[in-house]
TrEMBL record:
Keywords: NAD, Oxidoreductase
Protein name, UniProt field: Aldehyde dehydrogenase
GO BP annotations listed: aldehyde metabolic process
PROSITE patterns tied to this protein: ALDEHYDE_DEHYDR_CYS, ALDEHYDE_DEHYDR_GLU
Organism taxonomic ancestry: Eukaryota, Metazoa, Chordata, Craniata, Vertebrata
GO MF annotations in UniProt: 3-chloroallyl aldehyde dehydrogenase activity; aldehyde dehydrogenase (NAD+) activity
Length: 469
C-alpha cells in the first residue's frame, strides 16, 4: 500500500492505487462474505484501535499540539481517555450487545420466538471535523466496527497533522479488507458522497450537515448528524459567582473554545453580571496567568480563516475582559463581551472560540423564552443553587443534552446518549448507543409449521368467527 495507507490520496498522485469505486467494491465484497460478522473479528479490530492509541501516543500528542496547540491535559481527558474508555467498554460488552434481544409475545405468538437481531448495516462512511480530531474519529469508529460494519473514514483536512498521522499509521492496525481511508476537503468529500453507503455518520457544521443529508437522500441512506450551534448557559441570581465563573470559564475556554458543546453565551440578570464579571476576571487570571498568550494551558485557533472570523466577533458589544489577539500566532485571549445585541454576529452564529458574550435577561421566564425562540441547541446549561430553577429550565426547554450546575460533564458519561435535536443534529452515540446506531434492529419472528389447524381460523372465507379472533 502507499505510505499514506490510503487507496486514494488526492494530494499525492503517486498514492492513487485504485479508484474509490474499486475500494468501495472491495469493502462491499468483504461485508457480503460475512467476514466482519463474527465477534472474534470485531474484537480483533477493537484491540487494534487500542494498540494504535498506545503505540502512537506521542505522535498523536504532537499532532494535536501542532494543529491546535492542545494542552496535554486537555488531550488526555477529551481525546485519549474517552477513546480508550469506548474501546474498553465495547470489548467488554461486545458479546452481550450482539445477542438477540427477546421481546414479549402476544397470545397469538406464544409458541414462536420473537426477538430483535442487531445486524450490521454494511458499508459505513464516517466524516470527521477538526476540533477533536482523534476522539471524533475513534469513538464513531469503535461503534461502527463493534457493530460489524466495513468503514470508510474521511478525517478532517483542516487538522492536517492529525490527518497525516491517521492516514499513515491507523490503517496498519486494522484489517484492510474492512477499512479504508479517503483524504480530502469539500470537493473530494462531495465526490465520495455520490457513492452509495449503507450508513453515513457525520460530525460537523449544520451547513455541511445539510449537504451530507441531501447526498444521502439520493440513495435513501440513513444518517446520523452530529452538528453544532449555540449552547445557552443560564445563570440564576441564586448562585455563587466564583463557582459559576470557574465552571463556565473552564468549559468555555477548554480547547480554546473550539468545542461543539461549549457554553456559547451566558444569560443572566444585570445584577448577576456585576457579580460574575470580577469573578470571571480572577478565574481567567488564575487559569492562564496575567499574560494568557504565554500560558501553556491555552491552545490556538485552528487556522487563519477561523482566526479572522473570531477577530470579527471581538467587535461585537463591549469587551469586558480580554479582547487581545495576534494573527501571527492565531492567538485570541480568553474574552468576555457585554452589552451584546441579539442581532450582532456573535449572537447569530456559533462562536467556536474563546469568546463569551453575556446577554441580560430580567427573569427566568425571559431566559426560557430567549432559548425557545432559537434553534434547539446541542447542549444547555443552567446554574442555580435552587434545584427548582434548574428543573424548570430542563422541563421548559429542549436540547441534545443538559447539565445542571456545570459544563459538558454529561458528555463524559458513556451511559448517556450523545447527540443533537432539531438543528443540532439527529441520532446518538457513545457506549452502547454507538453499537445500536451502527446496527439495524431487525424484527424477527420464528414460527414452526405445526399448529396449522389453530392458525387456519384466520384464513378466508371470512366469517363472523374471524372478527372474534
Ligand atoms: P465542517 O462541517 O466544515 O466539516 C466537517 C467535515 O465535512 C470535514 O471532514 C470536511 O472535510 C467535510 N466538508 C466540509 N465542507 C464540505 C462540503 N461542502 N461537502 C462535503 N463535505 C464537506 O465542520 P468543521 O469546521 O470541521 O467542524 C466544526 C463544526 O462541527 C462546528 O459547527 C461544531 O459545532 C461541529 N461539531 C459538532 C460535534 C458534535 O459532536 N455534535 C463535534 C465537533 C464539532
Amino acid at each position: 500500500r502507499c505510505e499514506h495507507g490510503s487507496p486514494w490520496h488526492p494530494r499525492a498522485e503517486a498514492c492513487r492505487m485504485d479508484s474509490v469505486g474499486d475500494t468501495l467494491q472491495r469493502l462491499r465484497e468483504t461485508f457480503s462474505a460475512g467476514r466482519t460478522r463474527p465477534a472474534e473479528f470485531r474484537a480483533t479490530q477493537l484491540e487494534g484501535l487500542g494498540r494504535f492509541l498506545r503505540d502512537n501516543k506521542q505522535l498523536l500528542q504532537e499532532a494535536l499540539a501542532r494543529d491546535l496547540r492542545k494542552p496535554d491535559f486537555e488531550a488526555e481527558v477529551s481525546e485519549f481517555s474517552m477513546a480508550q474508555h469506548e474501546i474498553h467498554l465495547a470489548l467488554r460488552n461486545l458479546r452481550a450487545w450482539m445477542k438477540d434481544e427477546k421481546v414479549p409475545r402476544s397470545l397469538g405468538t406464544q409458541l414462536d420466538r420473537a426477538f430483535i437481531r442487531k445486524e450490521p448495516f454494511g458499508l459505513v462512511l464516517i466524516i470527521v471535523p477538526w476540533n477533536y480530531p482523534l476522539n471524533l474519529t475513534l469513538v464513531p469508529l469503535v461503534g461502527a466496527l463493534a457493530a460489524g460494519n466495513c468503514v470508510v473514514l474521511k478525517p478532517s483536512e483542516i487538522s492536517k497533522n492529525m490527518e497525516q498521522v491517521l492516514a499513515e499509521v491507523l490503517p496498519r492496525y486494522l484489517d484492510q479488507s474492512c477499512f479504508a481511508m479517503v483524504l480530502g476537503g469539500p470537493e473530494e468529500t462531495g465526490q465520495l458522497l455520490e457513492h452509495r453507503f449503507d450508513y453515513i455518520f457525520f460530525t460537523g457544521s449544520p451547513r455541511v450537515g445539510r449537504i451530507v443529508m441531501t447526498a444521502a437522500a439520493k440513495h435513501l441512506t440513513p444518517v446520523t448528524l452530529e452538528l453544532g450551534g449555540k449552547n445557552p448557559c443560564y445563570v440564576d441570581d441564586n448562585c455563587d459567582p466564583e463557582t459559576v465563573a470557574n465552571r463556565v470559564a473552564f468549559f468555555r475556554y477548554f480547547n480554546t473554545g473550539q468545542t461543539c458543546v461549549a457554553p456559547d453565551y451566558v444569560l443572566c440578570s444585570p445584577e448577576m453580571q456585576e457579580r460574575l464579571l470580577p469573578a470571571l476576571q480572577s478565574t481567567i487570571a488564575r487559569f492562564f496567568g496575567e499574560d494568557p498568550r504565554s500560558s501553556p494551558n491555552l491552545g490556538r485557533i485552528i487556522n487563519d480563516k477561523h482566526f479572522q472570523r473570531l477577530q470579527g466577533l471581538l467587535g461585537c458589544g463591549r469587551v469586558a475582559i480580554g479582547g487581545q489577539s495576534d494573527q501571527s500566532d492565531r492567538y485570541i485571549a480568553p474574552t468576555v463581551l457585554v452589552d451584546v445585541q441579539e442581532t450582532e454576529p456573535v449572537m447569530q452564529e456559533e462562536i467556536f472560540g474563546p469568546i463569551l458574550p453575556i446577554v441580560n435577561v430580567r427573569s427566568l421566564d425571559e431566559a426560557i423564552d430567549f432559548i425557545n425562540r432559537r434553534e434547539k441547541p446541542l447542549a444547555l446549561y443552567a446554574f442555580s443553587k435552587s434545584s427548582e430553577v434548574v428543573k424548570q429550565v430542563l422541563a421548559r426547554t429542549s436540547s441534545g443534552g443538559f447539565c445542571g450546575n456545570d459544563g459538558f460533564m454529561h458528555v463524559s458519561l458513556a451511559s448517556l446518549p450523545f447527540g443533537g435535536v432539531g438543528a443540532s443534529g439527529m441520532g446518538r452515540y457513545h457506549g452502547k448507543f454507538s453499537f445500536d446506531t451502527f446496527s439495524h434492529h431487525r424484527a424477527c419472528l420464528l414460527r414452526s409449521q405445526g399448529m396449522e389447524k389453530v392458525y387456519s381460523i384466520r384464513y378466508p372465507p371470512y366469517t363472523p368467527r374471524n372478527l372474534r379472533m
